[in-house]
Structures are given as structure tokens and as C-alpha cells.
Fold this sequence. Notes:
Blueprint: H1 8-15, H2 19-27, H3 34-47, H4 53-60, E1 65-70, H5 76-91, E2 95-100, H6 105-117, E3 122-125, H7 133-140, E4 145-148, E5 158-162, H8 164-178, E6 183-187, H9 193-208, E7 218-220, H10 225-236, E8 244-247, H11 250-262, E9 272-276, E10 290-293, H12 296-312, E11 321-324, E12 327-329
Parallel strand pairs: 1-2, 1-3, 3-4, 4-5, 5-11, 6-7, 6-8, 8-9, 9-10
Antiparallel strand pairs: 10-12
The structure holds alpha-D-ribofuranose.
Residues 75, 77, 149-150, 188, 194, 223, 249-250, 276-277 line the site of alpha-D-ribofuranose (RIB).
Amino acid sequence: MGYVVSTIRDVAKQAGVSTMTVSRVLNNSGYVSADTRERVEKAISDLGYVPNSLARSLRSKSTRTVALVLTDVTNPFFTTLVRGAEDVASRHDFNLILCNTDESEAKQTQYLTVLLQKRVDGVLLVPARSTSEPVTWLQRQGVPVVVVDRRVPSADVDAVRCDSEQGAYEMTRYLLGLGHRRIALLTGPAGVSTAQDRVNGYRRALHECSLNEGDELIAYGEFAPHSGYRMAQQVLDLPERPTALFAANNFIAAGAYRAVRDAGLSIPADLSMVAFDDLPAGLAVEPFMTVIEQPAYEMGSRAAELLFARLSGRAPSACQEVILPIRLIVRCSSGAPS
Length: 338
Ligand code: RIB
């Protein structure tokens, strides 16, 4: 069945009113008698008429649409963050467009270009790298941006994130308190702030205890299971094997866990394993991993609220940085060194 595209003129003709009256019904503006409204609404329903939002947005200078650009839509941390942002957008009667960049700057640029063409009202951005260009480009186009989860130090921009440096510091101090002295950190790309901040917190804890991490105990890779597997193999093959693995996110932890198992080792009997990011409540039947939990839902909802405050002019003129608390959850994947 072909879909016939009805126009506002078709609706007006069928209802026996002017196109202006149809507009008043669509925009719920101006006086329209109950009988006329009923006739117009019936004509809209009978014809299957869908208003042209582009025309409406030209008049109102708003598409009532915001975008969330993130790096890995398969990661439950990000899907939980999306839910937090989308709940807020819905409460503001806005649509949310979701874009997945796979940590690729090229894909990120491609999506930001499309979003500008679509005249989105604002962008929530999990940047693929900590460079300021994407942020300043959007700002120069007059599009409000809130950076989420990560930092863009060289840009003056609203931001909502967790304190990755402090979280890694607390987790490393926890392992040192158990007696570990050779802790390997498996992290993401050096150009991503969360990856680097977790290295910095790990190092701060070691230096406070007069320990110097050997560079062989820090592995840079991707926030992906295959990379976690490879990085774990790399440190397990060291002449002096680490007694603890610290995965900088949940996907690295998943790959590293498989590498430990394939090496015939058990957790925590042979070595401890800890990570950033808990699984969303209910996904893990019997969670066993000691983690630094990030409030992903709140991160998404707070970022969206800050964006809508900026859009409505309610936000303070100075850019806001919201840092949400992390939480260390000790479970059975960690213990004193064997
Ligand atoms: O698993 C997602 C978390 O790890 C986020 O903080 C993201 O930035 C990655 O670092």
C-alpha cells in the first residue's frame, strides 16, 4: 500500500475550514470552537496527516530535538547514561537523537555535521578524544554543548562527569592495603581523558606509598574486550607476574577476565582483579567483581538538565562542571596476594 502524503490544505478542505484554523488546532493556539476542533481532528486522523516539522521549526526556530553523541552504544554504562538523558528530554517534550561514534573522531565529525544540518537545539557529547575542536565548532554555530563522562580541558564548556582520577586512586589504595605491590593497570586510549585520569590516580596512590609503577605494568589499549584480552596477556607474560589486574572499564575487564581464565589462573586465588564500572543492577545475576561504580543514569540526567537549563537561559552564564561521586564496591574478585 502506497503512503499518500496529505497536506494541511487537504485537511482544511475535508474539515471545511481555513488552513489557518487547522494551524490553530495543530499548535493549540487561538480560539477554535469544540465542534470545529473535532472536525479538524477527524480530518487529520482520516487523512493520516503528519505536520511538516521543518516548517514549524523554521517558524519557532527550534526543532525540539537534542542529540546525544557517545562512543559505544553496546556498553551498558552508556545505555544507562542514555536512559537518564532521554527521560529528561521526554519530560521537556524534546526528542533525543542518539549517535554512536565507536571512539572514532572521523565518525564523530560526520555525525556533528549531520546534527548541525538537522538544526538540533543542543548536543550532549561524549568526546572521542579530549581535543577542543569539536566543542568550539558547535559553540561557534550557536549550538549549546554539554560534555559528558570525559573532560575537554582546553574548552570552556559545560561538563558532567565522574572523578576518574579519584576513583582510580581509591581503588589502587584499596589494593595496596591488601598487600599488593605489583598492580597492572589496563586502560583505554591515551588521548581519552578517562583513560589518562585513571592512570594518574593509580600513579598518585603508588607514589604516596613510595612505589614507582614500572611502565611495563601500565598497558594502553581500547575500551573493548579484545583489547582487554591482549593487554592482560601482555602483563601476565611479564617475568614477574602482577598480583592484581586493574581494568579501566567494564569491557576491558571482560576481555582480561577471559585471558586470565585461558592462562589457567583463577580469581582471586591466583590474582586479584578489579575494574571501573559496575554492571547495571539486575544484569549481573551474582556480581563478583570489585568495582568503582559510576552513576551512569545520573550522569545522563544531570547532563541533559544542564543542557535544557542552558537552552532556556536558566543556567548561570559561567560554564558549569558537575563532578559526580564514584563508589568503591568490594566483592570477591579481590583479596590479599597469594
Ligand atoms: O565503560 C565506560 C567508561 O569507560 C566511561 O567512563 C568511558 O569513558 C570509559 O572510560
